[in-house]
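Fill-in record for HEAT repeat domain-containing protein.
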Amino acid sequence: MSRLLLLVLLLAASPSRAGTVASECWAACRRHVADPSLRARTCGACVTGGRVDSWVASLGTGGAEAQRALESALTDGSWRVRWAAVRAGARSRGLTERRALADWIMDTPPDADLGACLTAVRAAADTGRSTADFLREAGARGPSAAARVWAKREAVRQSLSLEMFSQEPAVRLPALLHLATFQGRSATRVVLDAVASRPVAGDAVMAELLSAVAERQRASVGRLLLTEAKPPDEAVINRLFAVYSRELDALRPELASGDVQRRRTAVASLRRYGPLARRELEGALGDEDARIRELAARGLAESAGKPLRDMALQGVKDAETAEAARPWLGAMAHEKGCFAFLRDVAEGRNARTPEIQGEAVALLGDCAEGPPPTRRLAPFLASTVAPVRAGAVRALGALPRNGDAMALAAKALEDGAPEVVVAALDVLSAYRQPSRGDEAAGLLASEHPVVRAAAARALEFVGRAAHVRVLAERLRGDPVADVRVAAARSLSALGGPHAVAALSEAAAHDADTHVKHVSEDGLRRLGFGR
């Protein structure tokens, strides 16, 4: 198979960017290598090399034709091809790469040395160094070469600024980073200067470029702009804010989606905006999904430029309810130092209410630090504060299934506090323990509506046919709608003629529309109704 055909087949099967690089490599090789036999030996490297300059390296050990190809490559439009030609030429002459670079700059007439100067700028910046520093190791001609490059700084700036607005996205970020390194300025400052010098039509490109910088630095565009902003930048920053505001407007419908995965994706996207998305991130703290709440908490910490622990501590101290503290506690449950943080809150430090203490205890089950789980929860299971005991029971449900945890949850069914019993019922139903069905059924007679509702919910998972009768009684006669809803759902799961009769009666006559709806849905699941 010919090398050309192999390249065509490779490009046809490759992702678009890889295919573009290979085709650019092939075109560059053919542009500079005139000898057919040298092409056949050289250009094939484009198939496997993965770089636009993959073909250049082998020329350094070649004869006259190869040397002519290297000289031609020094005029290529790609700095990577030019730099590869310098390096290959250095090997053939027994010089260091930087010495060869300095020689090239100094041996080129001043009115034609922009390509050489740009190559030096970009090769140096690619290593994170200034051109002067990079050329310091080039020998006696290094300082003079660096001075020549600096004399061309305006032409260099114009060339790299033009690439920042390239139609090829992959070209923009390297140009920005190289220009920032060359000028000794932040990438954000370079973007602001570029926006100021260009019409509004280019703002979206610069906003996207700054987003790429933020992602690279694990920061947000809002934080980058706030850190860099100076009073004269107000008009430029407002132009960028306008772009980001339009992007946030497009995200808001996703934040309200009924699909939890779409909401997660949207909230994760908000973090790139930082302080600009503060209102949206604060709203996401109240989402029903724990992962979304954690993403929002982390996003707010990043937007404030503070460690998550500091933000979480302040969030918990300020919280007046368990719901307000939950996002911060949940975020810290997966963070280094989670055990000490949650234990302090659970023991009453930094918590305004017992319910917040209980929320912290509940999340100890998610923390991977500290003593073995059942041992770390033991003091809280024996607490005199009911919400703390309830939290400890809830934490049992987050542990891997084991006999000790199930025994502790079963013992909690005998607790006198309704919230503890509810937590125990929820854990045992999550464990799918049918042996606890009779205990759950017995609790349907509790004086506490929350316990009756939890018992009815649990029977959906631990109930048997023998429990249908007591569930039907609850559906027909319990004064609390939440209990009747839970009973209807469990009857729908257990089925049987008595369940169908009770559901039919509730669907026709219950005074609560939610109970009616759940009962009708249950009948459909059992094969009755439309």
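KEY FINDING: The CA atoms of residues 25 and 52 lie 4 Å apart.
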